[in-house]
Design a protein that fits this description.
The structure is a homodimer of 310-residue chains. Chain A has 310 residues and is an alpha/beta fold. Chain A has one domain: UDP-N-acetylmuramoyl-L-alanine:D-glutamate ligase (3-Layer(aba) Sandwich), CATH 3.40.1190.20. Chain A is 37% helix and 26% strand. Chain A has 10 helices and 15 strands. In chain A, strand 10, helix 5 and strand 11 form a beta-alpha-beta unit. The radius of gyration of chain A is 19 Å and the shape is globular. The model of chain A has no long low-confidence stretch (mean pLDDT 94). Chains A and B meet through strand 3, helix 2, strand 7 and strand 8 of A and strand 3, helix 2, strand 7 and strand 8 of B.
Chain lengths: 310, 310
């Protein structure tokens, strides 16, 4: 079982409108709802790849109830979201049908109490020791959760002997990296914020020196750069896939974790992550991937080894 | 007991954002949720005035569950919303903190099945005969409900001897008026659409000839014009109140109904409706009224009788 942690889970709502005009009234022509937050997106992709997943984090209020209802219908995902007194946040994506452009509105999320956070840490430890083959810690922290939360969760995973991947940003990333996670997967902005370096190769190496065993930096449509104990690789998709990049990073995380638990060598993990990521961009539905595109791209991702830098 | 009908009830959500920019990502700084749809707004104002209210219509899905939860905490409102298979719609008002301007997004609402509609009509008849002193039919029709629905509901109320007020627009209003409701309360646009006349005095008289016993036309900040069996009146607020006009029309409906069940003469009903409407504009919270403003304005609304036109 792979464990995913989504402390600030969300109900992702997509509205389609003919055209978004500020200060006007709009009739929404299509409403799509689904469980969201990076960890739940990763869980869904892992399940689609055939892995058993346990999803933990918090869910509360009426939106949280919707999340539980939806997860009940997801094959291979065990719902281990814990109750929180406040309501799970909504994220709203307003898609302009004329241009395809998206306007995003994100609610802040419920405030997690010290007691709720303590209960979570206990459950997390039990889940890790109950047979987790890997754990992904994903996304932003909700109000009330201490900024060093991920650092603590990384240490607990290491103590339990479970490989841990961290995908977050800002100060929670900075502190989490120092706790020596097995993998961090920052994008270019997160990497620059973490290291102060804007040159990707340099920034990736700097991030690794801060504590992460492996740093897999997302270069957007240009693929992934990985600096690992086994070497440094650049993995590039064979063609530029056009579409909706929402969730592409979460699919890359799922690809990396999936490859990790299957004990694939790094080049194969990276090829899987890049192919999944591109197949997600190709899907019109945010966060889903086109299986045939994934299969097609998988063998064609170019993974090249780079010489170790000074 | 006053009965309010809200066939397309809503969960009204208000988001405050620093500034709404299309195609950008926004952090929502404040989220407010409350039961909505015109009939539920009218119910809340009637309850605030001290009337016992029964609120019927439809509620379904997780948003419907939220509606039931909220109504449980409203004093003097009995929740008689019937189940519908689909989910109650959300309406989203995005308030730009910088300018105060509002961008509105309305979901379409659940499709009501023929069986659900038949159950509603039975319950409605029972509620009318179970001691309703008046009934308000308010707002748009959800998908699946026939366009002549309000006409049928007006006839049922008349057969039960219960005075009926209709507040809707378009074809449902046109058909409803022909069924001879006691009061219709169109705004200027609805009136022009109904009659083809753009001059308010003419349009109000034309609307009455189509079947309504009394037509109370909303003139926005200029007050109300009423053409009734007892005479024609113009009711004007003493000062122009600035603020948020959302829900002002629903407060006017509550004022008219409240005056009707208390058997007040028309000038007093109109003064009450205009004062409530202006006190609603004065409230920063959409759909609520400032009690002290209402009390203050009530005695100062100018109600003038007009000579009957040819």
């Amino acid at each position: 079982m792979i464990l995913t942690v989504t402390l600030n889970a969300a109900l992702d709502i997509t509205y389609r409108v003919p055209a978004l005009t500020p200060h006007a009234s709009h009739r929404v022509t299509e409403v799509i709802e689904r469980p969201g937050g990076k960890g739940l997106n990763v869980a869904r992709v892992l399940a689609a790849l055939g892995h058993d997943v346990t999803a933990t984090g918090f869910a509360g209020g009426d939106t949280g109830r919707t999340l539980h209802d939806r997860l009940r219908h997801e094959p291979r995902i065990t719902d281990a979201l814990l109750p929180v007194d406040g309501a799970t946040r909504r994220t709203l994506a307003i898609v302009d049908a004329a241009t395809g452009d998206t306007t995003q509105l994100n609610e802040p999320g419920p405030t997690v109490s010290p007691a709720e956070w303590a209960t979570f840490r206990e459950t997390y430890d039990e889940l890790l020791r109950g047979g987790a083959s890997a754990v992904a810690l994903c996304g932003s922290l909700p109000p009330g959760v201490p900024v060093g939360a991920y650092a603590g969760l990384v240490r607990t995973a290491r103590a339990a002997g479970v490989p841990v991947l961290l995908d977050t940003s800002g100060e929670p990333l900075r502190r989490g990296v120092a706790a020596r996670p097995d993998i961090v997967k920052p994008n270019a902005d997160e990497l620059a914020e973490l290291t102060g370096a804007h040159e990707p190769a340099q920034a990736t190496r700097d991030a690794r020196r801060r504590g992460a065993q492996a740093v897999v930096a997302s270069l957007g449509a240009k693929g992934l750069r990985a600096v690992t104990p086994d070497g440094t690789w650049l993995a590039v998709p064979p063609t530029r896939v056009r579409g909706n990049p929402t969730g592409a990073g979460d699919s890359a995380v799922a690809g990396l974790l999936s490859g990790l638990v299957e004990e694939l060598p790094w080049p194969e993990r990276l090829a899987r992550a890049v192919a999944l990521s591109a197949a997600t961009v190709a899907s019109p539905v945010a966060g889903e991937f086109v299986a045939s595109t994934y299969e097609d791209l998988l063998a064609r991702v170019a993974v090249t080894r780079e010489a170790a830098a000074a």
